[in-house]
């Protein structure tokens, strides 16, 4: 009985509930029809966690933690260290592979000229197949020495000082830092390597710089967000400067490479630097989210937005804009996030242009963007803005089109934070009433008639004329249909529950009935007597006697 | 994305309905066009290359919302701008007061931003001198006082529009040239510190 009741209360969806009951019912029937019904019932009552479930899965005797996949802190760290080392090795292997391919290409195109550097490139063949970790350390130092020579070779026609990163590169990252490898990061790494292949030798250097930078960054997780941002921006600046001298001032090629560098680096660093614990980004996110929720009553008229959502094309663009601005959160690379904002803005422009029949100006655009943000309530808005500001390549953020739309989004967010009665052309009292939920502006507005339509006598007439109301009515019908279906399902579930409750009782009754009808009578033991009395019983066949056949 | 690369950020400031958007529209469709430009769906942001002597300078023009509602946010807009075109309506004295406000803001917050004072709707006063509310000399005095260039334009006839933007691009080009020669002058032997001289490496 408790079993069934428990199942009902924990399940919320009636359909699930029914399925669950069925499942348990059959399970129950199969396993316990002939054995002890009562004991099973007591065993299943309530939540019962076995002590052994709480312990570390490795069996070291300490308690584990679900957040660490059931391991204790020590085992988890070991496990993670192992995964991370593997990741690092894989990355190096990839870099090695690239290096070897390029060496081969270079050698074939330049003949024996490259040989003077034979000493530096000698370590590779020995490490072509990456062995255990002990070799890895060794290889790393090899990499480092070779890097210094090649960096000079590539970047210094003049004797420019090598970048400061190299002196820090040797640091091993602290063990608590983990790099999450996923399909996405692997894909980005591969793309990056492919892209750099086209650049021949510089590509290899760029890749090495980036690798070194990422390793270096992972040892600095305890820095504040601003300091991390500073590191990344310095890196961009250094990289851009050197690319500039390499490409002899062709800013387009530099930008192309920088885009790839940004993509690669930020995909890797994302987990650690997006909404870091050292900042209060998360708190701001929540504050903004709540603020936007509290402002749900703001209408398009209050913001003076020149978009007419009655026009299907406009509302389509509005929906797309909302989708785009929400999608921003799912991207990792600052540039991809910016692209989402730009797409969103373009849709808003389309919507305004369709409504007004002329190109939109900033006076139209900003209110519309504010409206879209209010409607979308984009997840982690503040974190995303902060992340883009901190880690985007500044040349893009400061001047270009993306930068313009991003700035507008910042403005929209700032506006929403500071929004008050005056900025909506409302009286402070009205604003207070709306904010506290005591009143809804829709009932007062000129378009409020639909809200009253339900009680008005000519409700149907209104409903047939207005397409929105037709849609509304259809939805209402659909909803009531769903409600009745749900009621039926609930009823079925309840009758099943009743069945299930009465079933063990009926079985019990049956068993009792059977027991009463055929009371168990223990027959007197006569077995020994049989043996004693029937030694010479004629009914028994004669004992078998061996027969001998003449061969 | 194939957005045009932009050299300088130019921000348009001015009271609502003063004609910022028209000015930008006029500028985008004029004959100084070099190469293809994007088919803008809005006039809020436009990027347009201008030929200055040997070089091509691309100005990214940022339109801003002029309504007082968004006044608190305007600072976000002109951050990092190399030039600001502060517009006022020649037939509306209140718009000139707003222009003064923006000039003060810019001087306080963006000292590297060059200011261009621009009186709009010049065609209106040409038809009827009496509608003029801002005296040319008053505006000119103010411009000199703040070290700004002063133009009176008409987006309708196109008067002075090209000149205004040409001047902006030319000044930017000159300052960028100075900036670069300065840098190479300092550079000898200590290239790695060069980014400390850049104004925007820390966003």
UniProtKB/TrEMBL annotation, chain A:
PROSITE patterns associated with the record: VPS9, ZF_A20
Region (Disordered): 103-184
Superkingdom of origin: Eukaryota
A20-type domain ranges (all copies): 50-84
Ranges of Polar residues composition bias in the record: 110-122, 170-180
Record keywords, A-Z: Metal-binding, Zinc, Zinc-finger
InterPro entries: DUF5601, VPS9, Vps9-like, Znf_A20
Annotated coiled-coil segments of the chain: none
Biological process per Gene Ontology, one example term: vesicle-mediated transport
Basic and acidic residues compositional bias, start-end: 135-146
A GO term, aspect molecular function: zinc ion binding
Residues passing through the membrane, by range: none
Keyword Transmembrane: no
Residue ranges occupied by any VPS9 domain in the UniProt entry: 282-425
Keyword flag NAD: no
One Pfam family this sequence matches: zf-A20
Protein name as it appears in the record: Rab5 GDP/GTP exchange factor
Organism lineage: Eukaryota, Metazoa, Chordata, Craniata, Vertebrata
TrEMBL record, chain B:
GO cellular component terms given for this protein: autophagosome membrane; cytoplasmic vesicle; cytosol; perinuclear region of cytoplasm; spindle
Cofactor: Mg(2+)
Enzyme class: hydrolase
GO BP annotation list: autophagy; protein transport
GO molecular function: G protein activity; GTP binding; metal ion binding
PROSITE patterns on file: RAB, RAS, RHO
Catalytic activity: GTP + H2O = GDP + phosphate + H(+)
Family annotation (CDD domains): Rab24
InterPro entries: Rab24, Small_GTP-bd, Small_GTPase
EC number assigned by the record: 3.6.5.2
Stretches that traverse the bilayer: none
Compartments (UniProt record): Cytoplasm, Cytoskeleton, Spindle; Cytoplasm, Cytosol; Cytoplasm, Perinuclear region; Cytoplasmic vesicle, Autophagosome membrane
Any Pfam family hit: Ras
Keyword field: Autophagy, Cytoplasm, Cytoplasmic vesicle, Cytoskeleton, GTP-binding, Hydrolase, Lipoprotein, Magnesium, Membrane, Metal-binding, Nucleotide-binding, Phosphoprotein, Prenylation, Protein transport, Transport
Membrane topology value: Lipid-anchor
Keyword Lipoprotein: yes
Complexes and interactors: Interacts with ZFYVE20. Does not interact with the GDP dissociation inhibitors ARHGDIA and ARHGDIB.
PANTHER family: PTHR47978
Family per record: Belongs to the small GTPase superfamily. Rab family.
Physiological role: The small GTPases Rab are key regulators of intracellular membrane trafficking, from the formation of transport vesicles to their fusion with membranes. Rabs cycle between an inactive GDP-bound form and an active GTP-bound form that is able to recruit to membranes different sets of downstream effectors directly responsible for vesicle formation, movement, tethering and fusion. RAB24 is an atypical RAB protein that presents low GTPase activity and thereby exists predominantly in the GTP-bound active state. RAB24 is required for the clearance of late autophagic vacuoles under basal conditions.
Protein name listed in UniProt: Ras-related protein Rab-24
Species whose genome carries this gene: Solea senegalensis
